[in-house]
Amino acid sequence: MIEPLTPPARPVLLFGAGHVGQAISRACAGLPLALSWFDSRPELAGLHNLTILPEPELLAQAARAPASSAVLILTHDHGLDYRLAAAALGGAAGFVGMIGSKTKRARFTSRLTAAGGKAERLVCPIGLPGINGKEPAVIAIAVAAQLLMLADTPAPAPNTIQHCQQHCRTRHHRPPVAVLCPSSDNS
């Protein structure tokens, strides 16, 4: 008997456990997504699969997100949203998205650019265009659909030219001339 190979699930780092975060967590269940869900508020500790971390650890998680990952930011605090976006955009995350309006995006991209950040990678608002609604479940479906579309375009495999070029850009050293990546961990 031959078993079909399934592609690895795309890592998704979800920051925020409000109504929309909870809906996104539910919408991702059963999908080919590997969800890691975070918040800083201890009073939410009872939510299934939610990890409570202090802000410095949240920022570290966002900064360490691998190139194959999607980072979703929808916390209770605009300041924390900004710091998480800056951390994720300064790292290797393949997708960095934030809940919010076009006005919020303009404010954040202006601040990120002024601080020398990579604001052009920020996707805000998140969710597949054309799925309209303000209800948490509707937003969650639009975001899950957007994440599934990302899954159709996997991140470059380790030890490929594309992977190595991305690795070097995120670690600020020269692009490789050979196919093998200069990293010891192939990240």
Fold and architecture overview:
This protein has 187 residues and is of the alpha/beta class. The protein folds into two domains: 10-155, NAD(P)-binding Rossmann-like Domain (Rossmann fold), CATH 3.40.50; 157-187, no CATH class. It has six helices and six strands; from the N terminus they run E-H-E-E-H-E-H-E-H-E-H-H. The protein has a six-stranded parallel sheet, sandwiched between helices. It is globular, with a radius of gyration of 17 Å. The chain starts with 9 loop residues before the first strand and ends in a 16-residue tail after the last helix.
Describe how the helices and strands are arranged.
Blueprint: E1 10-15, H1 19-28, E2 33-39, E3 50-52, H2 55-63, E4 70-73, H3 78-89, E5 95-98, H4 102-114, E6 122-123, H5 136-151, H6 161-171
Parallel strand pairs: 1-2, 1-4, 2-3, 4-5, 5-6
Amino- and carboxy-terminal Cα gap: 34 Å
Sheet with the most strands?
6 strands, parallel
Mass-distribution shape: globular
Helix content: 25-40%
CATH architecture of the largest domain: 3-Layer(aba) Sandwich
Elements, N to C (H/E): EHEEHEHEHEHH
User: Any idea what the radius of gyration is?
Assistant: 17 Å
The structure class reads: alpha/beta
Number of strands: 6
Integer tally of domains: 2
CATH superfamily of the largest domain: NAD(P)-binding Rossmann-like Domain
CATH classification class of the largest domain? Alpha Beta
- In DSSP terms (H or I, runs of 4 or more residues), the helix count works out at 6
- The percent range for strand residues is 5-15%
Mean pLDDT: 84
